[in-house]
Amino acid sequence: MRSPSSNLSTESGLDLGTDARFKDAGDLDISDGPAAFSAIERGIAAIAATGARVLALGGDHAISYPVVRAQAARHPGLTLVHFDAHPDLYDEFEGDRLSHACPFARIMEEKLVSRLVQIGIRTLNAPQRAQVARFGVELVEMKDFRPDLVVKADGPVYVSVDLDGLDPAFAPGVSHPEPGGLSTRDVISVVQRLRGRIVGADVVELNPVQDADGATARVAAKIAKELLSRLLSD
To answer: Which of 213, 212, 222, 234 is nearest to 186 (CA)?
Structure first.
């Protein structure tokens, strides 16, 4: 999150550069394949067991499944607020049930969260619409989104931000860009107005190969800072 174009101060006035509660836990050492999911879950669980709140940086959206598993064990009754162009609810994708297109199907099957609120969706096909109905997902499709949206939760909240939820004008450096999406300010404003106690979060799907000028990395860093502001303040 360090860049000569910005600093570590958040819009709430919190300075992550001087706040001793903010610590970079480094990278998890993971291998390819299913073993990576267990390693991610163990790594997040070990940090959460200290009482810390964790912001995980991906990676593709497949990481949210093991991260949420670790968080759910510590914070039952989670509300999951998910920003994305895609609902990622396929039962399987190209034969893979652990694909980046499937994490929220696994999360809902295992009842890891009590609510799933998806914001910015604009690629909903018939199979995924059926999954929305099956799991009782609270859907805010992009065509229905309003900038003054307020999400309310009685219990703990986990926030997952897929950068392709943003319009490619704001975040071109992703693998699956989808026009007609959220602005950077839309995402930040919903996070800032969210009524609930945020206990964990992730930001995923930055693709540096597609991000020639670093614009998407700067957006990711900005969203990460504002999520950290909530994680440290709630």
So the answer is: 222
Asked whether 201 and 187 are in contact (CB, 8 A), the reply is: no
Strand partners, 156: 197
Number of domains in the chain: 1
Give the pLDDT confidence of 42-65 residue by residue, as tens digits.
999 999 999 999 999 989 999 999
What value does the mean pLDDT take over residues 89-94?
Answer: 95
* Cα–Cα distance, 165 to 174 (Å, whole number): 10
Residue at 25 is within a domain: no
CATH of the domain at 55: 3.40.800.10
**Residue 205: inside a domain, yes or no?**
yes
Nearest to 192, CA basis, from 142, 158, 155, 227: 227
| Residue matched to tokens 């009524």 | 195
Mention every residue, 6+ apart, whose C-beta is less than 8 A from residue 114: 77, 78, 79, 155
Q: What is the mean pLDDT of the chain?
A: 95
Domain assignment present for residue 21? The answer is: no
In a domain, 83, yes or no: yes
The helix (H) or strand (E) run that includes residue 103 is helix 103-109
- Which residue range forms the structural domain that includes residue 182? 35-233
pLDDT tens per residue across span 112-158: 999 999 999 999 999 999 999 999 999 999 999 999 999 999 999 99
Residue 32's pLDDT is 77
Residue 112, phi then psi, degrees to nearest 5: -75, -20
